[in-house]
Write a structure and sequence with these properties.
Length: 446
């Protein structure tokens, strides 16, 4: 079909197009007048995905998508919607009570859950593109209801988040407290067993995980291998006292007498002789007492070693008991610390949410949008009218021009114009005869 044929069909079926377009416009007008207006209230909450927990110091981290999806579903949960009904006093609203009484007979929900479902059906929660801001939207039939419910949803959502976190922390705290009590009981029993074993065996374990006898043996062995310096003989030598007096005289006269003074030289010579005498006395004392000390020390080391070896099994058993006590003590400290943290968390109102103010009363309804509705109805009417006109034309084809005959290869003998077209043609192009017609004055003259 050529453009000319298409335009001829539209011109011929113009009444169909106009009728369909008018019908769409009338339908749009009915929708605008009959369907109640819908207003949207918006409230926003920031999901602090990076902000660390004030108690544990942990952040949500890389699982932000799952967290955001969970929060959006929580907004439309019965726990939140039920609190909205409680806050707004809808449970005592006579209109809602009457509507609930006329509900379908197969609807077995209670009144509170029925109202909560009404809130859920009109609630939408989504993240603002490219941000951590969650926008809560509620659709109502009045602007005030939209604002009030949007605010109530935001408050109920925050309160529910706090309640969920506190309940979870309280349950975990109770569990860790019970585990801490069990660990404390086991620790007391293990410590008592260790103490009884120490009283029975007389073995005392020190802080470095060694007993007293082993520490004594180590000290004796170290003393036996270390050279002894005995100064008793030196202290009892008569030359030691005289040496001290000579040192005092040298220190006293060093300022008065020079280094080359005969008296100073004599004092220094005397001091050297006394020092040699003191050294000889000390060596003699060491030679007399050293042999006795070494023999006694070796005997003491051997005796202590025998004692330690005889108690090796008891000492190993004591070490095992002590290791068990330390393990139970560490377990008790960890569980007790975790229980204390969770108890503190149960009293904290931090939820990782930041409310961005209260909802604002909408200035115009979301529906109906008159320009959009009538513009869409006009476009739909024109498009539908053209399609219907073409369909009607296909069901009842007519020859409307030379192009219709050429499309079916029909022979064309002549084209007879309409009267209006023929008149317009004669007015535009007058007829000029080559020869005078019979009876014309010019013919007679010729």
């Amino acid at each position: 079909m050529s453009i000319i044929q298409f335009l001829r069909v539209l011109t011929a079926r113009m009444w169909v197009i106009l009728a369909v377009t008018a019908g769409c416009l009338v339908g749009a007008a009915i929708v605008v007048l009959v369907v109640p207006a819908r207003w949207e209230g918006h409230s926003r909450v920031v999901l602090d995905l990076i902000k660390p927990d004030p108690l544990t110091g942990q952040a949500i981290g890389g699982n932000s998508r799952a967290y955001a999806a969970t929060q959006m579903e929580l907004v439309k949960d019965y726990a939140v919607a039920g609190k909205v009904a409680d806050q707004l006093g809808w449970l005592t609203d006579p209109t809602l009570i009457q509507r609930y009484q006329h509900r379908p007979s197969n609807d077995g929900r209670d009144f509170r859950r029925w109202i909560a479902q009404q809130v859920i059906d009109r609630t939408k929660a989504e993240l603002v593109e490219g941000s951590n801001i969650m926008e809560i939207t509620y659709t109502a039939q009045t602007a005030d209801d939209a604002k009030a419910v949007a605010d109530a949803l935001m408050k109920a959502y925050v309160d529910s988040s706090v309640a969920f976190r506190r309940d979870e922390a309280r349950r975990n705290a109770d569990w860790f407290t019970a585990q801490s009590d069990k660990a404390k009981l086991a620790l007391d029993q293990a410590a008592q067993t260790e103490a009884d074993f120490q009283r029975q065996t007389g073995i005392i374990l020190q802080d470095d995980k060694t007993d007293v006898d082993s520490a004594h043996l180590r000290a004796l062995a170290q003393t036996a291998t270390t050279p002894q310096i005995i100064t008793a003989g030196a202290q009892q030598s008569p030359a030691a006292g005289e040496l001290a007096q000579v040192d005092a005289l040298i220190a006293q006269d060093s300022d008065k007498l020079g280094a080359n003074h005969p008296d100073m030289i004599a004092l220094k010579a005397r001091r050297a002789a006394l020092a040699a005498q003191v050294a000889r006395d000390r060596t003699a004392a060491q030679s007399q007492v050293g042999a006795l000390n070494v023999a006694a020390m070796n005997a003491a080391v051997a005796a202590q070693k025998t004692k330690v070896l005889g108690q090796s099994e008891k000492f190993e058993r004591l070490r095992q008991l002590h290791a068990g006590v330390e393990l139970l003590r560490d377990q008790y400290n960890k569980t007790n610390t975790k229980a204390a943290e969770l108890k503190q968390e149960a009293t904290i109102g931090e939820t990782g949410l930041t409310v961005l103010g209260a909802a604002v009363t909408p200035q115009k309804p979301k529906f109906p949008n008159n320009p959009l509705i009538f513009g869409g109805a006009l476009g739909l009417g024109l498009g539908s009218g053209v399609l219907i006109a073409l369909l009607v034309e296909l069901l009842g084809r007519r020859v409307r021009g030379l192009e219709d005959l050429k499309a079916i290869d029909a022979p064309v003998l002549a084209v007879v114009p309409t009267r209006k077209k023929a008149a317009r043609t004669r007015e535009a192009k007058p007829v000029k005869a080559d020869r005078p017609l019979p009876g014309h004055p010019s013919a007679a003259s010729t």
